[in-house]
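User: Please fill in residues for this 190-position structure.
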Protein backbone atom coordinates (compact mmCIF):
# COMPACT_ATOMS: atom_id res chain seq x y z
CA UNK A 1 0.00 0.00 0.00
CA UNK A 2 1.87 3.02 -1.31
CA UNK A 3 0.45 5.70 1.05
CA UNK A 4 1.51 3.61 4.05
CA UNK A 5 5.00 2.98 2.70
CA UNK A 6 5.37 6.70 2.01
CA UNK A 7 4.34 7.50 5.59
CA UNK A 8 6.84 4.96 6.94
CA UNK A 9 9.59 6.52 4.81
CA UNK A 10 8.69 10.04 6.01
CA UNK A 11 7.83 9.51 9.68
CA UNK A 12 9.17 6.08 10.65
CA UNK A 13 12.21 6.00 12.93
CA UNK A 14 14.56 3.02 12.75
CA UNK A 15 15.49 2.30 16.38
CA UNK A 16 17.67 -0.71 15.60
CA UNK A 17 18.08 -3.40 12.94
CA UNK A 18 15.01 -5.05 14.51
CA UNK A 19 12.68 -2.26 15.61
CA UNK A 20 10.79 0.40 13.70
CA UNK A 21 9.11 3.22 15.61
CA UNK A 22 5.93 4.56 14.07
CA UNK A 23 4.48 6.51 16.97
CA UNK A 24 3.80 9.54 14.73
CA UNK A 25 0.88 7.81 12.99
CA UNK A 26 0.11 4.36 14.45
CA UNK A 27 1.45 3.60 17.94
CA UNK A 28 0.91 6.84 19.86
CA UNK A 29 -0.37 9.67 17.68
CA UNK A 30 -2.82 8.19 15.17
CA UNK A 31 -3.44 9.44 11.63
CA UNK A 32 -7.19 8.85 11.16
CA UNK A 33 -7.16 9.34 7.39
CA UNK A 34 -4.38 6.83 6.93
CA UNK A 35 -6.22 4.43 9.28
CA UNK A 36 -9.31 4.80 7.12
CA UNK A 37 -7.31 3.96 3.98
CA UNK A 38 -5.82 0.97 5.82
CA UNK A 39 -9.30 -0.19 6.84
CA UNK A 40 -10.54 0.18 3.26
CA UNK A 41 -7.58 -1.83 1.95
CA UNK A 42 -8.04 -4.71 4.42
CA UNK A 43 -11.79 -4.69 3.74
CA UNK A 44 -11.17 -4.91 -0.03
CA UNK A 45 -8.66 -7.75 0.35
CA UNK A 46 -10.97 -9.79 2.63
CA UNK A 47 -14.30 -8.77 1.02
CA UNK A 48 -15.02 -12.29 -0.22
CA UNK A 49 -13.80 -14.11 2.90
CA UNK A 50 -17.12 -14.16 4.75
CA UNK A 51 -15.73 -12.36 7.79
CA UNK A 52 -18.14 -12.08 10.74
CA UNK A 53 -15.79 -10.68 13.44
CA UNK A 54 -12.46 -8.92 13.70
CA UNK A 55 -10.07 -9.72 16.55
CA UNK A 56 -7.07 -7.62 17.54
CA UNK A 57 -4.94 -6.90 20.65
CA UNK A 58 -5.03 -3.69 22.65
CA UNK A 59 -3.83 -1.03 22.16
CA UNK A 60 -2.17 -0.47 18.80
CA UNK A 61 -4.23 -2.95 16.80
CA UNK A 62 -7.49 -1.22 17.68
CA UNK A 63 -7.27 1.73 15.25
CA UNK A 64 -6.69 -0.29 12.06
CA UNK A 65 -9.10 -3.00 13.27
CA UNK A 66 -11.94 -0.60 13.90
CA UNK A 67 -11.62 1.06 10.50
CA UNK A 68 -11.69 -2.38 8.87
CA UNK A 69 -14.73 -3.37 10.92
CA UNK A 70 -16.48 -0.18 9.93
CA UNK A 71 -15.92 -0.90 6.24
CA UNK A 72 -16.83 -4.59 6.46
CA UNK A 73 -19.78 -3.87 8.78
CA UNK A 74 -18.69 -6.37 11.47
CA UNK A 75 -17.90 -6.05 15.20
CA UNK A 76 -14.34 -5.63 16.45
CA UNK A 77 -13.09 -7.43 19.58
CA UNK A 78 -9.80 -6.51 21.20
CA UNK A 79 -8.01 -9.01 23.40
CA UNK A 80 -7.31 -7.40 26.74
CA UNK A 81 -3.92 -7.47 28.38
CA UNK A 82 -5.10 -6.59 31.86
CA UNK A 83 -7.84 -8.24 33.80
CA UNK A 84 -10.64 -5.73 34.30
CA UNK A 85 -12.95 -5.75 37.32
CA UNK A 86 -15.87 -5.89 34.90
CA UNK A 87 -14.56 -9.06 33.21
CA UNK A 88 -15.69 -11.46 35.91
CA UNK A 89 -16.67 -14.50 33.85
CA UNK A 90 -14.53 -17.32 32.46
CA UNK A 91 -12.16 -16.01 29.79
CA UNK A 92 -10.50 -17.48 26.73
CA UNK A 93 -6.84 -16.67 27.20
CA UNK A 94 -3.35 -17.27 25.86
CA UNK A 95 0.09 -16.22 26.89
CA UNK A 96 2.13 -13.98 24.59
CA UNK A 97 5.75 -12.92 24.68
CA UNK A 98 5.93 -9.23 23.81
CA UNK A 99 8.58 -8.46 21.21
CA UNK A 100 8.88 -4.79 22.19
CA UNK A 101 8.45 -5.10 25.97
CA UNK A 102 10.28 -8.46 26.25
CA UNK A 103 7.89 -9.78 28.90
CA UNK A 104 5.40 -12.62 28.88
CA UNK A 105 1.81 -11.61 29.47
CA UNK A 106 -1.68 -13.06 29.21
CA UNK A 107 -4.27 -11.79 26.72
CA UNK A 108 -7.93 -12.63 27.08
CA UNK A 109 -11.31 -12.41 25.35
CA UNK A 110 -14.71 -13.12 26.80
CA UNK A 111 -16.31 -16.21 25.21
CA UNK A 112 -19.56 -14.24 24.98
CA UNK A 113 -18.21 -12.41 21.92
CA UNK A 114 -16.94 -15.36 19.86
CA UNK A 115 -18.88 -18.42 18.79
CA UNK A 116 -18.19 -21.49 16.64
CA UNK A 117 -20.10 -19.85 13.79
CA UNK A 118 -17.65 -16.97 13.52
CA UNK A 119 -15.18 -16.48 10.69
CA UNK A 120 -12.55 -14.24 12.18
CA UNK A 121 -10.14 -11.77 10.64
CA UNK A 122 -7.15 -11.07 12.89
CA UNK A 123 -5.72 -7.55 12.54
CA UNK A 124 -2.52 -6.27 14.15
CA UNK A 125 -0.16 -3.32 13.75
CA UNK A 126 3.11 -5.30 13.38
CA UNK A 127 4.14 -8.84 12.59
CA UNK A 128 7.58 -9.77 13.96
CA UNK A 129 7.95 -13.32 15.31
CA UNK A 130 4.23 -13.96 15.23
CA UNK A 131 3.69 -14.41 18.97
CA UNK A 132 0.74 -12.00 19.16
CA UNK A 133 -0.93 -13.62 16.12
CA UNK A 134 -0.39 -17.13 17.55
CA UNK A 135 -1.97 -16.08 20.87
CA UNK A 136 -5.03 -14.73 19.03
CA UNK A 137 -5.24 -17.90 16.90
CA UNK A 138 -5.21 -19.97 20.10
CA UNK A 139 -8.06 -17.91 21.61
CA UNK A 140 -10.11 -18.17 18.41
CA UNK A 141 -9.48 -21.95 18.36
CA UNK A 142 -10.64 -22.22 21.99
CA UNK A 143 -13.92 -20.55 20.96
CA UNK A 144 -14.31 -23.12 18.17
CA UNK A 145 -14.37 -20.28 15.62
CA UNK A 146 -12.43 -20.20 12.35
CA UNK A 147 -9.47 -17.98 11.46
CA UNK A 148 -10.32 -16.68 7.98
CA UNK A 149 -7.23 -14.54 7.59
CA UNK A 150 -4.66 -12.27 9.17
CA UNK A 151 -4.24 -8.60 8.24
CA UNK A 152 -0.99 -6.91 9.25
CA UNK A 153 -0.24 -3.21 8.84
CA UNK A 154 3.58 -3.55 8.91
CA UNK A 155 5.27 -6.91 8.43
CA UNK A 156 8.96 -7.26 9.20
CA UNK A 157 9.62 -9.99 6.69
CA UNK A 158 13.14 -10.66 8.00
CA UNK A 159 11.66 -12.07 11.23
CA UNK A 160 10.05 -15.46 11.51
CA UNK A 161 6.33 -14.68 11.95
CA UNK A 162 5.29 -14.54 8.30
CA UNK A 163 7.02 -17.78 7.37
CA UNK A 164 5.49 -19.64 10.30
CA UNK A 165 1.96 -18.42 9.61
CA UNK A 166 2.37 -19.29 5.90
CA UNK A 167 3.58 -22.77 6.88
CA UNK A 168 0.50 -23.22 9.07
CA UNK A 169 -1.65 -22.42 6.03
CA UNK A 170 -3.07 -19.08 7.13
CA UNK A 171 -3.81 -16.34 4.63
CA UNK A 172 -1.69 -13.34 5.64
CA UNK A 173 -2.16 -9.94 4.00
CA UNK A 174 0.43 -7.32 4.95
CA UNK A 175 0.08 -3.74 3.73
CA UNK A 176 3.80 -2.92 4.01
CA UNK A 177 6.46 -5.63 3.98
CA UNK A 178 9.77 -4.48 5.40
CA UNK A 179 12.71 -6.41 4.00
CA UNK A 180 15.38 -4.80 6.17
CA UNK A 181 16.05 -2.05 8.71
CA UNK A 182 19.82 -2.42 8.40
CA UNK A 183 21.92 0.74 8.51
CA UNK A 184 18.98 2.82 9.74
CA UNK A 185 17.26 2.47 6.36
CA UNK A 186 13.81 1.01 5.74
CA UNK A 187 13.67 -1.12 2.60
CA UNK A 188 10.53 -2.85 1.39
CA UNK A 189 10.02 -6.26 -0.21
CA UNK A 190 7.64 -5.16 -2.95
P1 LIG B 1 5.24 -10.55 17.30
O1 LIG B 1 4.21 -10.96 18.30
O2 LIG B 1 4.82 -10.83 15.88
O3 LIG B 1 6.61 -11.07 17.61
O4 LIG B 1 5.36 -8.98 17.43
C1 LIG B 1 4.25 -8.20 17.08
C2 LIG B 1 3.84 -7.30 18.20
O5 LIG B 1 4.98 -6.66 18.78
C3 LIG B 1 2.95 -6.21 17.66
O6 LIG B 1 1.68 -6.33 18.27
C4 LIG B 1 3.62 -4.91 18.03
O7 LIG B 1 2.91 -4.30 19.07
C5 LIG B 1 4.99 -5.27 18.54
N1 LIG B 1 6.08 -5.00 17.58
C6 LIG B 1 6.87 -5.93 16.98
N2 LIG B 1 7.82 -5.35 16.25
C7 LIG B 1 7.64 -4.02 16.38
C8 LIG B 1 8.35 -2.88 15.83
O8 LIG B 1 9.34 -2.97 15.09
N3 LIG B 1 7.85 -1.66 16.17
C9 LIG B 1 6.77 -1.51 17.00
N4 LIG B 1 6.36 -0.26 17.24
N5 LIG B 1 6.08 -2.57 17.51
C10 LIG B 1 6.52 -3.81 17.21
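Assistant: Residues filled in for all 190 positions:
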Amino acid sequence: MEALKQKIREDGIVLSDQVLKVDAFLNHQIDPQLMQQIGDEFAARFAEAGISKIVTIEASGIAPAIMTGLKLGVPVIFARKHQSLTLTEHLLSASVYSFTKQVESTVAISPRHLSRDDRVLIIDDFLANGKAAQALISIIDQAGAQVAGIGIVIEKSFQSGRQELDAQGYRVESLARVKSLAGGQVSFLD
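For context: The helical segments are 2-11, 32-45, 62-72, 131-142, 161-167.
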